[in-house]
Amino acid sequence: MKVVLTYEDYVALPDDGKRYELHEGELSVTPSPGRSHQHVLGQLYRLLASHVDASAHGILILSPFDSIMTDTTVVVPDLTWLDDERRGRLSDRAIEGSPSLAVEIISPSSRAIDRRRKMALYAAHDVTWYWIVDPDARTIEAYRLESEAYVLHGTLEGDEPRALDPFPALRLDPAVIWP
Predict the structure, then answer these.
(1) CA-to-CA distance for 56 and 157, rounded, in angstroms?
(2) What is the CATH number of the domain that holds 55?
(3) What's the structural domain count of the chain?
(4) Distance (Å, rounded) from C-alpha 8 to C-alpha 174?
(5) Is 5 inside any structural domain?
(6) pLDDT digits (tens, 9 = 90+) for 36-85
(7) Which domain holds residue 82?
(8) Does residue 112 sit within a domain?
(9) Taking the model in full, what pTM does it have?
(10) What is the DSSP letter of 31?
(11) For strand 79-82 and strand 129-134, is the pairing parallel, antiparallel, or unpaired?
(12) Helix (H) or strand (E) holding 131
């Protein structure tokens, strides 16, 4: 018999440096991210935060911060953005529901989870935008939820700065992002 964990079980987990999430009641555990992951996360946060503060509406949140999709699905995207319409989902403990954008930076231990499992979870829970950031490939893939599935809307690759939705006015410079 399969045990289904809930948010109450999730908050009782130890604070041991591992990254815990609940995927439809199933516990997902990954090690803490490495240096390259954290460098890219810091650079993306800095770029996106200055843009959100200056011209885009909404709020940008740096991990670790829970997104409680349901009582049995709790994820911790590397970066999360709530547009003005979803901003009210932010509480002191978490995002209560789905964000507008979830950004996942791939680590060796999270590749399959981010590309398959989380993509399916985010689609099932109505996350409008999903970015997959791959430091090894030096790419950012921007997906938009359309008819309950993600469609690739743009990719940052190579050396040329480029804007990605949902931030069409922000040109992301690869020279700044990658270590």
Answers:
(1) 23
(2) 3.90.1570.10
(3) 1
(4) 41
(5) no
(6) 999 999 999 999 998 887 666 899 999 999 999 999 999 999 999 999 99
(7) 33-177
(8) yes
(9) 0.94
(10) P
(11) unpaired
(12) strand 129-134
